[in-house]
Design goal:
Helix content is about 30%, strand content about 20%. The protein has helices spanning about 15-30, 40-45, 50-60, 70-75, 90-100, 110-120, 140-150, 150-155, 175-190, 335-340, 345-355, 365-370; strands at about 10-15, 35-40, 65, 85, 105, 125-130, 160, 195, 210-215, 235-250, 255, 260, 265-270, 290, 295-300, 305-310, 325-330, 355-360. The strands form three sheets. Strands 1, 10, 13, 14, 15, 16, 17 and 18 form an eight-stranded mixed beta sheet that branches. The longest helix has 17 residues, at about 175-190. Bound molecules: pyridoxal-5'-phosphate. Pyridoxal-5'-phosphate binds near residues 41, 199 and 217.
Amino acid sequence: MSSLLRPADVVFEIDLAALQANFQTISALVGPGVRVAAVVKSDAYGLGLVEIARALIQVGCDLFFVANLDEALLLRSSHIGAAIAVFCDEFAKFGQYYRSMGLIPVVNNCIELHAINAARETQTYFLNVESGFSRLGLAFVDVRRTYLSGTFEQHPPSVVLSHLACSERAEDPINVLQRNRFRAVYDLLRPSRGSLAASAGVWLGKSYHFDIVRVGSALYGLNNAGIEPNPLQPVASLRAKILDVRNVARREAVGYGATFRTIRTSRVAIAAIGYKHGLPWTCANKISVRFGGYSAPLIGRISMEYATIDLTDVPAALCGPGSFVELLGKDFKVDDLAAAAGVNPQEVLTRLGAGCARQYLTSSSPSAAQANAGERHEPLALE
Ligand SMILES: *Cc1c(COP(=O)(O)O)cnc(C)c1O
């Protein structure tokens, strides 16, 4: 983390113009009839809830999904005027906050539905229905029973939503099954809007889009569905400072467990980044980092505060102590790091965001980004 005394040794940089470009790419893909809602849960996947929301509002985003009430209150108290929906928190207990702060609960079960209907005031709500994911959401039997009781007619949900289990694999038949089940509920309840697809679902085609797509990963540059050519811009980059450079003789061990042994006399850099910053331990001996146009392998285990790099083939002028090495950027992205480490890219992003000092790169021409803000949709009615 940075301190008052000096700049950070690890820089996790977030390119807000790339984020905005990804929002526009997805908006163009789904077309003008479909709203793109931003999923900013978990501190916007580690990239910073308020900063990310502000940048997306500039390009016309008017609906945000957060994980819980705490995130919703933080967003609202940062003067974010857009609609904010809470994926899961106790509406029955905290209804007063939802009402006073103008927040929208996602109703996930019959207890919450009961609380919604008991609320005297008219409370806008979204309804999550289970379609084959077995996480949160009303089971179909409960949807049907509630429908037959007339409750939905008296107090209809503004949005009915469900979540896909396998949208990263376009050919998986579970996608069709979930879409058909969701379609059945949508046709039964006739809500003003439906929402099924998250990022990867955007690429499954029109029949998955309904009225709102809920996009997280793709905004942050993750290509979950492996679309080629990748239309998304990388949003996160990562640099770390070189603390020291040492010469290591041939056949010496580097790091814990001696998992790397030099095969020649080597120059080895100690970089100020470790797993506490969110660099996956399992990427040891598997990735390369960059100095200018040069690439250099990460060797030996990742330790808590440090990682070691074989600099032997990089000109000494580029990589002395105090210089910065690039771990993530345009050439090597979060997706690549996650694949090399055998972990989930969203996990890498949230951990890096939590473990590093964040810096924001803003658009050089914000007016261009603002030009087509908020023109395509009627504001989300709060009834
Ligand atoms: C996290 C989440 C999303 C966003 O998923 P991405 O694949 O990151 O776009 C959408 N809907 C629900 C219910 C989620 O939990």
